[in-house]
């Protein structure tokens, strides 16, 4: 099977040039001028870019008494429709469950994926089995480990568990990740708000002010530094968290921050909407913030202090959101975005001049491929790389509606937004899954992408730790006692 993408402009994280791209058996085999042979895809007027990688999804996830509505089939179909060709989903072991047993559950679900996927392992409890499971997981190609500092009484881990787990993750050459919110304070504020009669969805935002995120982000950074492990902070929503990340990076710490497309483009006013359903559909953690926080996130992407744009795609139907009528703390937390991340970021980032097309590729694909150690198999337009590509038409427009989306849910948080910049074609390992608006995804086409540990970064941290470790001072003599 040979496909030639013709007459396009190749845009990568660092280069822009006119070239045709030959794809054979799922990989890029040639990049050059006037290539011939095979099925041709016309990319005239388009950019040929690495397909997007969304490193933060929750497909068919058991959470808050229900399951997120999109599964690996509908979720990855939505991804491909919007130009994303790889997702990284979170395995959530239950309390006391072996990590690799949980991994089997996720492998069963992901057999339906239409694009490639990888996993992060969540550390949801601590014990001997988890200590061992971290090594088993890394050997199985799951080398990033997420810790929830929120969701007290469910997924949350405490600081001693965090420190032990971070050290273990560092030992196996893994990447530590955190959902950074102070779960103790959130629990206190939630109880207080409910007691005072604040039961509506807006109280979800009141219960999670930026301070709870800033504090937890800073704490995670310091604990990671003491443990000697690189750290990735998911869904950074506010200046308070961004400030901690910016400071850490300036100090030479290996810390990356991930804002979501939702936080970049939607704000807290959504929670004050008079329609309960409208507000509840937007309940997620951390909540949407005000414009000053949004400006901070954009500035972080522009300056490089924030590295990756994700979605945290965790969709619930209106019916599921209504579990929280009369008590906001029971509204399942999560929003969708897989189909809309790339078009929304292009529209609000590239079309406004905040991001260059190359920076767009960096924050939607290449940076995370490097952080997660699957570059240049993914996140690249290079000979030998997987042909996970998007042929991006910067002139194509649409208005986002739930009625025309791939996701299973009955609404879209971006409903009514007009986007300019959409895929003409999306290729997943050479298969043209999106063909000029036509969805040709294949259930089961997606393959697991195992990832090696990142020895270079971890070695650098360990080496520095060794060189600067506490040592006894060599003295010439010790004064005798009583002199
Ligand atoms: O509200 C959210 N973000 N739901 C998904 C789970 C998580 O915290 O990432
Ligand atoms: Zn989270
Ligand atoms: Zn999440
Ligand atoms: Zn918009």
TrEMBL record:
Cross-referenced InterPro entries: Amidohydro-rel (IPR006680), Hydantoinase/dihydroPyrase (IPR011778), Metal-dep_hydrolase_composite (IPR011059), Metal_Hydrolase (IPR032466), Metallo-dep_Hydrolases_sf (IPR050378)
EC category name: hydrolase
Domain Amidohydrolase-related residue range list: 47-419
Catalytic activity, EC: 3.5.2.2
SUPFAM superfamilies the UniProt entry points to: Composite domain of metallo-dependent hydrolases (SSF51338), Metallo-dependent hydrolases (SSF51556)
CDD domains: D-HYD
Gene Ontology molecular-function annotations: dihydropyrimidinase activity
Entry cofactors: Zn(2+)
Domain of life: Bacteria
Keyword terms: Hydrolase, Metal-binding
Xref: Pfam families: Amidohydro_1 (PF01979)
Family: Belongs to the metallo-dependent hydrolases superfamily. Hydantoinase/dihydropyrimidinase family.
NCBIfam families to which the protein is assigned, alphabetical: D-hydantoinase
Protein name: Dihydropyrimidinase
Organism of this sequence: Rhodobacter calidifons
